[in-house]
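TA notes, week 10

Several of you asked for a full example with nothing omitted. So below is the full record: structure tokens for the whole chain, then the designed sequence directly under it. When grading your own attempts, check the secondary structure regions first.
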């Protein structure tokens, strides 16, 4: 569920009076999502999404997130356009929370991504990397290499009981990543959470990217590594070479990866898998039994991490440098 803060019709009508939008016909809370409270608004000019930002989104980061969506939308990317209030501001306040109204995007996220979806998301991600190059604001990644050890330390005592050997496994992984993390690769604005549930398709055409609330400045190829994990494993947990190849081909239809980025991809993929393992683990342990939220399995990402450990070079993924699948 993702309505942590409820609102009354009167509160909402008063809030919308500060926006240059039509009259409200209906609104409803949106069940999907985990971080913020989202509502679908049907107004007589169009539909919109109203988001009330909950505790994990820092108020000072909102100008970056909303400004980035506006920047990308103005450059022709399919992402939500934040609506300015009558006083020009992008951020308002509703029910004691910072709040924003953004345009509604049509489409559905793919429940069972196929290589054609991976190609499309790769191409759109690279277009986003290019379009973000002249965005004026910056934001450091708050969930990068330096943050993983403290995140593990916060969970490790409770996590040890979940799986024998987990402590040594993660300790070894952190040491490897801290010693081998690439530092001199191209960087820029990345989405950092471009999972299938954040990418909409209409039929087979990509119709939009949403949920920019982890966006930040970091290595561009780290975004590719996040997608390699999120899009290119089948339901049984096996790496899907056709999807991996399609993701990279799509990406390179818009931006060519450097030799350094290709060489670093297995390490970046290990880091990306660890990042989602650690945040899911934290949430798993912190969410009380019976809470009205679907907990995501952390060990799904530990298995992906273990797979990447077996990969020496990008060719070992079964995707050679020319983009052909190895036999
Ligand atoms: N601009 C949008 N257009 C259409 N639906 C949206 C839009 N933004 C969010 N949604 C809907 O709200 C849900 C939750 O949004 P998301 O940003 O992923 O929330 P959270 O940050 O809380 O995880 C999405 O799965 C989607 O159904
Ligand atoms: N994509 C992350 C969780 C973040 O959830 P979102 O609804 O904000 O995309 C994961 O799968 O762990």
């Amino acid at each position: 569920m993702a309505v942590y803060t409820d609102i009354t019709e009167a509160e909402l009508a008063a809030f919308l009076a500060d926006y240059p939008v039509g009259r409200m016909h209906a609104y409803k809370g949106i069940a999907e999502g985990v971080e913020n409270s989202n509502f679908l608004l049907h107004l007589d000019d169009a539909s919109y999404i109203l988001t009330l930002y909950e505790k994990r989104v820092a108020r000072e980061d909102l100008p970056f997130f909303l400004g980035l969506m506006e920047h990308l939308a103005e450059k022709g990317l399919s992402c939500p356009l934040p609506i300015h209030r009558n006083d020009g501001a992008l951020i308002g306040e509703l029910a004691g929370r910072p709040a924003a109204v953004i345009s509604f995007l049509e489409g559905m996220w793919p429940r069972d991504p196929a290589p054609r979806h991976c190609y499309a998301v790769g191409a759109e991600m690279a277009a986003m990397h290019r379009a973000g190059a002249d965005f004026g604001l910056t934001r450091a990644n708050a969930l990068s290499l330096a943050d993983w050890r403290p995140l593990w330390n916060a969970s490790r005592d409770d996590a040890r009981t979940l799986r024998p050997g987990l402590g040594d496994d993660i300790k070894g992984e952190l040491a490897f990543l801290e010693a081998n993390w690439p530092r001199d690769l191209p960087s820029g604005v990345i989405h950092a959470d471009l999972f299938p549930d954040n990418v909409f398709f209409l039929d087979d055409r990509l119709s939009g990217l949403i949920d920019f609330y982890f966006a930040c400045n970091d290595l561009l190829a780290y975004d590719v590594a996040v997608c390699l994990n999120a899009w290119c494993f089948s339901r049984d947990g096996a790496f899907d070479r056709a999807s991996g190849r399609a993701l990279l081909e799509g990406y390179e239809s818009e931006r060519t990866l450097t030799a350094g980025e290709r060489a670093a991809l297995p390490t970046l993929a290990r880091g990306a898998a660890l990042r989602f393992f650690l945040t899911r683990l934290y949430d798993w342990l912190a969410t009380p039994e019976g809470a009205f939220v679907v907990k995501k399995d952390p060990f799904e990402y530990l298995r992906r991490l273990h797979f990447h450990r077996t990969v020496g070079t990008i060719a070992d993924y079964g995707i050679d440098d020319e983009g052909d699948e190895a036999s």
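The two ends are 43 Å apart (CA to CA). Use that as a sanity check on your answer.
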